[in-house]
Write a structure and sequence with these properties.
Layout (H helix, E strand, L loop, with lengths): L2 E8 L6 E8 L10 E7 L6 E4 L1 H10 L2 E2 L1 H10 L1 H13 L4 H35 L19
Parallel strand pairs: 1-5
Antiparallel strand pairs: 1-2, 2-3, 3-4
């Protein structure tokens, strides 16, 4: 039975939200699945991804093939890098502790980079809201009635 790790669409029209699922390749996109391993919301900047890293890694070791988009998500979350490191452990290139140390170093750098991107996006959004003339102001109201000279 060919197994795929793929996205299952939810959400309303023009407001997508996805579940990351493990499913039989012959099942329909939003149909029956074997296991739900995470969620993906592309509407946030950067896109928010909740993923059970261990379940995804287990399914990859069992031979499940990710779709192109899910492959990018797994790479973004470090699952493919962790699989690569564990392959090095299996081949005897380094031990488990060294692999986990390398992964933790990568993970901390990645988290710092993502926080920086979120902060830059928040600042850019606030700057765009204010506009080029500084902070937003209400236009002054003129008193109604006959104009005085």
């Amino acid at each position: 039975m060919p197994v795929k790790i793929r996205l299952q669409r939810h959400g309303s029209k023009k407001r997508p939200f996805y579940f990351i699922v493990v499913a039989d390749a012959r099942a329909p996109r939003d149909g029956k699945f074997i296991q739900k391993i995470g969620t993906y919301n592309p509407l946030t900047v950067p896109a928010s991804v909740q993923l059970d890293r261990q379940k995804a890694l287990d399914w990859l070791h069992k031979g499940a093939q990710p779709t192109d988009t899910v492959r990018r998500i797994l790479s973004y979350k470090g699952v493919l890098y962790l699989k690569h490191l564990l392959r090095g452990v299996k081949l005897g290139l380094f031990d488990d502790a060294a692999a986990m140390e390398k992964f933790q170093k990568w993970h901390s750098e990645h988290e710092a980079q993502m926080k920086k991107r979120q902060e830059e996006n928040r600042k850019a959004k606030a700057g765009a809201r204010r506009g080029p003339g500084g902070p937003m102001r209400r236009p002054e109201r003129r008193p109604e009635g006959p104009a005085q000279a």
